Amino acid sequence: MTFIFQLFGVSVTHASNLLNSHIQFRFATCNEVLMMVVGSICAVLHGSAQPLMLLVFGLLTDTFIEYDIELNELSDERKECVNNTIQWTKNYTDTFAGLNQSHWSSINYSEWETFAPLRSRPCGILDIEYEMTKFAFYYVGIGAAVFILGYFQISLWVNAAAKQIQLIRKIYFSKVMRMEIGWFDCTSVGELNTRMSDDINKINDAIADQVAIFMQRFTTFVCGFCIGFVKGWKLTLVIVAASPLIGIGAGLMALFVAKLTGMELQAYAKAGAIADEVLSSIRTVAAFGGEKKEVQRYDKNLVSAQRWGIRKGLIMGFFTGYMWLIIFLCYGLAFWYGSSLVVDTEEYSPGTLLQVFFGVLIAAMNLGQASPCLEAFAAGRGAATIIFETIEREPEIDCLSEAGYKLDKVKGDIEFHNVTFHYPSRPEVKILDRLSVIVKSGETTAFVGASGAGKSTAVQLIQRFYDPKEGMVTLDGHDIRGLNIQWLRSLMGIVEQEPVLFATTIAENIRYGRPGVSMDDIITATKEANAYNFIMDLPQKFDTLVGEGGGQMSGGQKQRIAIARALVRNPRILLLDMATSALDNESEAVVQEALDKVRMGRTTISIAHRLSTIKNADVIVGFEHGQAIERGKHSELLDRKGVYFTLVTLQSQGDKALNEKARQMAENEDTPEKLSLSRAGSYRASMRASIRQRSRSQLSNLIPESSVSIAGELGPRAYAVSQVDKSKNAIQEEEEGDLVEPAPVARILKYNVPEWPYMLFGSLGAAVNGGVNPVYSLLFSQILATFSVTDPVAQRKEIDSICLFFVMVGVVSFFTQMLQGYAFSKSGELLTRRLRRLGFHAMLGQEIGWFDDHKNSPGALTTRLATDASQVQGATGSQIGMIVNSLTNIGVAILMSFYFSWKLTLLILCFLPFIALSGGFQAKMLTGFAKQDKQAMEAAGQISGEALNNIRTIAGLGKERNFVDRYIAQLDAPYQAALKKANVYGACYGFAQCVVFLTNSASYRFGGYLVRQEGLHFSLVFRVISAIVTSGTALGRASSYTPDYAKAKISAARFFQLLDRVPKISVYSDKGQKWDNFQGNIEFIDCKFTYPTRPDIQVLNGLNVAVRPGQTLAFVGSSGCGKSTSVQLLERFYDPDKGRVKYDTNVGAQGSQLSRGQKQRIAIARAIIRDPKILLLDEATSALDTESEKTVQEALDKAREGRTCIVIAHRLSTIQNSDIIAVMSRGYVIEKGTHDHLMALKGAYYKLVTTGAPIS
User: Fold this and answer.
1) What pLDDT was estimated at residue 103?
2) By percentage, how much of the chain surpasses pLDDT 90?
3) Quick one: 640 exposed, middle or buried, by C-beta within 10 A (0-12, 13-18, 19+)?
4) Which residue, among 1077, 1086, 1078, 1130, has the nearest Cα to 1104 in the 3D structure?
5) 554, 542 in Cβ contact below 8 A?
6) CATH assignment, 1082-1251
7) pLDDT of residue 1095
8) Band of the pLDDT at 220, cuts 50, 70, 90?
9) Which is the CATH superfamily of the domain at 414-632?
10) DSSP classification of residue 418
11) Which end of the chain is more exposed for a tag (fewer CB within 10 A), N or C?
12) Which pLDDT score is estimated for 1203?
């Protein structure tokens, strides 16, 4: 047995290891174990059915041959049937008996023959119809048993697996949600999501139907060889001796294909990376007009992927041909040697020859078919190891633990005692170094210091996200490691720099702060957080959905909802981690006001970079290199001239002069009422404007999961009817876009036209390959016919010629398989490359507004390039080869069958649809269910995805159990779907397996009738049956390509949709004027604009502003007022809905995607090297710290000399030297002039300056 295994490239230890999958079944209860045991017994019995059929088949063949020999013998008129034995006719022997010796010389050979006594052959006993009826019943009986066993083996295993998988999902997710935050630092969320979906599915594959199918096939393999060795060990050994050649071929093919596929994927990954890079920074590419260059760069990388693909096709063709050659040589050898055992030595009967030959053949085939199951087991074991490792791991800080005590009274004193700490993901970097800090109860303590000084880390230690490596953190003198975690975290309210909102309503988001909180408490909290007014202005008020990650809210709104959520907890300790850093001036003022209100009487720790938020703190602690090196009030620390002094000086240098001047003016003119009034009015204005998502670059990165935009619900209702219609149309278009009409094949083939010679030769090869199966059944039946030939010389000659013919068919097959493999891979790869290039070219040709749609995010587009283009191959390339192959196979088989016996052919054709159906079903079985499983898991996947992405927020709110419960509730649907699938799948599998038995039963019974009543030669019965049954499986294979074919048509349709789309602003167009003496005059005339993805929100509302050559125009205003939008209209990323932008040429802008000091300076160099007449600087220094900003600002001031320049900045120090400052609000310019002029006006600009700090 070991020997056989090794022949087929499967080591015994490997097989036993994979079968010994105890690790995968550890969650099975007694009930499931019973199901699996019964399922296994059914599988083993089912596996013995095919070899059992061979025994019947051997007897049936012998019966036919005996009957044919009897007919042949009795067709000789010198013989007759006497007393059920064949004898010479009486009158012949009497005649010769009367002759004397002198007449003997005149007797010829045939007359001499009659003197020899005949071999005693029975006759007249065999009723062929009766015998065939008996065999038919055997077949029906086996078929019925197979149906029942097939049903139970599959449904029981799938059922048992479904229950276990549901349990594994529950336990795994619960365990992941209990892990400490440090574990998440070392494990990426993407990896966890993959484990939740793919890895658990792999375990499912390994413990469900695959086990049953493996047992069935393995049993067939064992029984097949047993029959071979028991019935005829000599022939079995001869066949087995040739088998390693097939094993070696299959092994080498797998090796080469894996290697070449790896190379191809690697080559395509490079091209994909280029596509992703280009699409992610499409604004930069567009600004520099680099589209064509990028398409060429992408195409260059596609060439190597194409080359590897073609090589892979050739290698596959070569090895497939090689294997067919060996198989046919084996057939020739087996029949030649077997026939000599039947005819010459008479060791075997013809039936035994077939039993041995097919026994070994079926055994080998089933071993081959069992190997994919081994792959599934290996993948399942690998996945299970990782999953179970996590399940077994004990969290270092168990957030759901009931352990630890709860203090009766909490004062709120926090102290760090000599705390040393490094993150688990970066053990070599010391973050806190013997930190000692006291935070007194009821006081506000501000932590300040450079980035990476350890401020946020200290806050996370208070929340017990991590434990210190040395030292301890105490609350009211108690080490927090001894306190109950959930209770400890419930004392704290935290507001972060980037607050996380969950994809539900505003009210529900606030409820996450404290379960069971009343609506009155929610309203009180929102009023305290200055959020109540803007919420009530929304159409759905508290029931407004905030979108995935809060994407439908502006930064200020998200921040205020997060503050309300923190307040509703009524926390003793308030942690503010850069709570206002992401906001513009106006929003910041509002949020800061809210924070000042709520800090009273609470222990508050505030981390901030802005002085305005720090000055009022009771105590300021200066951090440096993980230590607290100074502590005191604002004025004390300034006198000390340490860390705090440095930070203050750097930050306020630019703004100081402005602030002083503004303050003097404010003191001179005592008008507080006017100021506060204008602030309130402007607040409402900014509130309405900020309902829109904050900036276009964020908009293209957000990609909400749900496909229906909630934009329409958020905007104020006061827009014109045309706007509402516009948004309705947008939503309708979006829904229609998902349902694509499959593309016509003719159009797909049109793109493949240049490769027609390859496709022609490939189809010829495929057609010849398709004819191989029917030719095989012709030769096989011919061999059987020779066994009933009574003349030994003629018999031997015929057998030799048939065996030679087998060899010839093998040789032809070798070359045609190679031709088919190479020709189709060449045409397919060339098509894929062509489509990818065209697709990428079309993508880069779209206007920027198209990229704002979340369906066209860089990730989605890169995926579309990768998958759609290669899926289109499913309608051309090798797919055509497969279809031509199958059609030729069926065509030749049916023509041949009709020629030999049209009656029998008609009978079998009635079964053909079922055979084809079963073949197609088995191929499609898994893909169909995989899709359903995926859909069923989608809801649960959304919950787990949201939980893992926002694990810190959830931990801070102590909401782990809530998410676990929601996830578990969503697991019931996939479980019910799996149970339903178990029954359907089981029944279909049973039917697919038994249909061949039923076909054989009817065919041989009717064949017996035709042989008896109509004199049909028995070999033709075998010829017709084997030709049609093999062609039926070919039809099944062809039908299994239909999903690929349908997928290809839909992918192609999506592709053509992209190619056919006419962009609103064509990048590749040569139309339009070009000037030589370009000056740099720019004028916006009454521009109105809405973003295509948010048509209900007016961004520009009649913008009028002009800038002359060499001047610098600065746009100022709060987030969402339309500053960046106006620059993008100038670059012609968008066209205004109304009004005009007069300007002269496409201009280079600084890429809006770039950030941080060095990148920023490189970007400036890139902009200047074009020697532009116009320089656009969009928030060029906003992302930098104070020191980097100074360096970059100097570079910019140099670059501006002598050029028309438009600046958007959020820090006033960068704007004050501009020739014109335009203050924008709600899409139009409300004030413009120089800095001094606007300060004198005492309007919006004056107010922005006097509040100090950055604008956004």
Assistant:
1) 62
2) 8
3) middle
4) 1086
5) no
6) 3.40.50.300
7) 74
8) very high
9) P-loop containing nucleotide triphosphate hydrolases (3.40.50.300)
10) E
11) N
12) 75
